[in-house]
Backbone:
DNA sequence: AACTTGTCCTGTCATGCCGTCAGCTTACCG
DNA sequence: CGGTAAGCTGACGGCATGACAGGACAAGTT
């Protein structure tokens, strides 16, 4: 699927080269989670990787290029989120459990990748198509099966409900909540209480009914 | 209320100085809406304002400092959002209208200030307390009265509903939807359809009931 | 072992932005 | 008209960027 890893000037990277490249990516990831995106400099990444800036530019056109690489890796990884929805039941108490697991899994994924997702979100908001596409891939891994679930659950009874719109809103809410969980804390809502609250929203959105007690 | 405007080295700015300062802020605002935050350089802002970089550093410690200034200005302006909720009725059809006006007003505010809000959102997500505070001020201008509305409407019938949590989730959803309206487009949801969908969510959240037909 | 080939890394350099300072110009006031 | 403070900029050291050529290295060939 993916072609050979290549340097900026067209050479094919060998074993050692790929190691260096990977080390640079790892260090960049680390930098992103410790300092503001705006302040991440090539020279710092190179220093941390024990190499020189020139080496960095052999493998990536610039910081943004390397970030895209990390982001694409993460987007691949997000495919696993599908399993949180696919083939799950939304009936009764099982449905509520499905909803809770979805919220849990999604928040965990976001927390695990929060640094890179922050940059992806910014890039998407700024109108960069490459970042936008990556963000959509992550969101769609949940939104697509969720829209399907909405259609299956409510589509027959209420034709006015747009599955895509509902699923989109829910996923948007989940992403924003994950990114800004601190805001909820400042509203006096503990992270522990946030999860069931979101799970309830998801259940309501998908089924259109109040959950069973 | 606000003390005199001062330069970085402590002088008080006079009429002419304030004009220059304002011009720099305006140009920075313009830059933010046309190029990625990461690429906004002091020298470009200065050039656009027809002045020199040294002048910029007379009025602001760095780009971030100037951005904070713009953001604070916008946060002041956000106080007007309160009127979208304060003293409004949530009963029956009037409630649905209130909800629609709220969504409309909020999205309009976000769209109007999208460039600066993008940066504020990033800063807040990165853990910068100053940006976080500004973001909370904007969100709270709607979230606070909305939480109050939830308590008034549902608090008596259902003690388990946490007004702050519901209002927080709704405002978070609105903010994220405004920031990423393009995502909805890509899900096949037109901006026109997005608004009523969000309005419905808000109505449901506040009243806990399905809207009247 | 000497040679060849292609990968990998870095020293170096021109360029450009950052952030500071001394010093010049302008405006205001008595 | 002289004093004072505001306002602005040229110039500079420092650092990041991005390109290149060339040296180090590994692996295979003769």
Residues:
């Amino acid at each position: 699927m993916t072609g050979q890893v290549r340097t900026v000037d067209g050479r094919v990277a060998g074993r050692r080269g790929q190691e260096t490249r990977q080390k640079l990516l790892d260090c960049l990831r680390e930098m992103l989670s410790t300092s503001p995106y705006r302040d991440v400099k090539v020279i710092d990444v190179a220093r941390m990787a024990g190499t020189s800036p020139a080496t960095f530019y052999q493998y990536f056109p610039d910081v943004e290029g390397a970030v895209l690489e990390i982001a694409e890796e993460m987007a691949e990884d997000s495919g696993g989120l599908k399993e949180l929805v696919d083939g799950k039941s939304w009936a009764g108490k099982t449905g509520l459990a499905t909803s809770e697991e979805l919220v849990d899994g999604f928040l965990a994924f976001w927390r695990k990748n929060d640094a890179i997702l922050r940059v992806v979100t910014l890039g998407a908001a700024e109108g960069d198509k490459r970042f936008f596409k990556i963000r959509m891939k992550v969101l769609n891994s949940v939104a697509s099966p969720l829209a399907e679930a909405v259609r299956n659950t409510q589509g027959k009874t209420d034709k006015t409900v747009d599955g895509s719109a509902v699923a989109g809103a829910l996923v948007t809410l989940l992403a924003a909540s994950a990114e800004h969980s601190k805001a909820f804390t400042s509203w006096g809502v503990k992270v522990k209480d946030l999860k069931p609250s979101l799970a309830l929203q998801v259940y309501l959105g998908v089924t259109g009914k109040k959950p069973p007690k």
About this structure: Chain A has two domains: 1-61, 74-207. DSSP finds ten helices and no strands in chain A.
